[in-house]
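Ops channel
N.P.: pipeline sanity check, posting one input/output pair.
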């Protein structure tokens, strides 16, 4: 029997979470979307009965933000119904459920970090569907339900902004990157570590249920983030030029301000995630290797 069950295990965060759990000596099983449809109650109940987890971490999600605008019902099935099904199964089995959520539940028009208790106000379909998932977990599991909101995720195990910029640096003379959206680049390795700590604290009774914000410390813009990526590549940061969101119109609105506060971690005896620059520097060799291959130089 497993102590931990990770859904959406084939994704970028799921891969790093399973690696962290293994490193921490935890007994864990990961199920990707081909192995478990979280919207199917019978399949979910069967998975929990088979593996007997004490903690379930739901990394499964519809993350195609723009597509959600035209396919909100489909996104809601994964982001809203799926967490409710998991929560109901955990209510029956006695397991803790940790639901990964997003900064998109906020409007993105603040000027100070969003607290865990700030009322949500999503502007788009993706945020609405993720908020539905949050509420399903907290309403169904008031004593064993946890929501961890994150943002601007990157990691070696999938496509993301950092890997895209590494690729583009090699083929573009200059890059125009938006400088009017602020957020917190967050390494999946750091988030995975906090998810492990939170799950353990939940079982120990030292972490109160509810909402936590799992993003890096500090803040930056996509433009400044890209310049830091270029610096780590040994490339000239001046090749990255600032532009505005109006130059990259997308179907879904992007939050102008995605900075989250991290007050609740310390009450649970857990340090919030470190500054984004330190995390990026540690993660960078693996990102470079994943994007360019094993023979890539580590500038």
């Amino acid at each position: 029997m497993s102590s931990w069950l990770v859904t959406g295990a084939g994704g970028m965060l799921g891969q790093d979470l399973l690696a962290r759990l293994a490193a921490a000596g935890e007994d864990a099983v990961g199920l990707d979307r081909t192995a478990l449809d979280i919207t199917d109650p019978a399949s979910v109940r069967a998975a929990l009965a088979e593996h007997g987890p004490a903690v379930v971490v739901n990394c499964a999600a519809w993350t195609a933000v723009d597509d959600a605008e035209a396919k909100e019902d489909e996104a809601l099935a994964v982001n809203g119904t799926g967490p409710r099904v998991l929560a109901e199964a955990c209510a029956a089995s006695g397991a803790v459920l940790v639901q990964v959520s997003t900064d998109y539940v906020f409007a993105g028009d603040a000027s100070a970090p969003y607290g865990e208790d700030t009322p949500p106000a999503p502007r788009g379909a993706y945020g609405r569907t993720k908020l539905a998932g949050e509420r399903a977990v907290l309403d169904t599991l008031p004593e064993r339900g946890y929501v961890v909101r994150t943002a601007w995720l990157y990691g070696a195990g999938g496509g993301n902004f950092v890997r895209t910029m590494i690729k583009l640096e090699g083929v573009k003379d200059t890059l125009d990157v938006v400088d009017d959206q602020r957020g917190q680049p967050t390494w999946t390795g750091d988030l995975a570590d906090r998810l492990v700590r939170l799950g353990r604290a939940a079982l120990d009774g030292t972490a109160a249920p509810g909402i936590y914000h799992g993003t890096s410390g500090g803040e930056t813009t996509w433009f400044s983030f890209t310049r830091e990526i270029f610096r780590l590549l040994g490339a000239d940061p001046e090749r990255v030029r600032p532009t505005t969101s109006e130059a990259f119109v997308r179907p879904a609105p992007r939050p102008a301000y995605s900075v989250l506060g991290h007050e609740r971690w310390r009450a649970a005896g857990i340090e919030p995630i470190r500054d984004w620059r330190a995390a990026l520097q540690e993660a960078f060799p693996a990102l470079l290797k994943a994007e360019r291959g094993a023979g890539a130089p580590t500038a």
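N.P.: looks fine end to end. The first strand starts at residue 4 and ends at 7.
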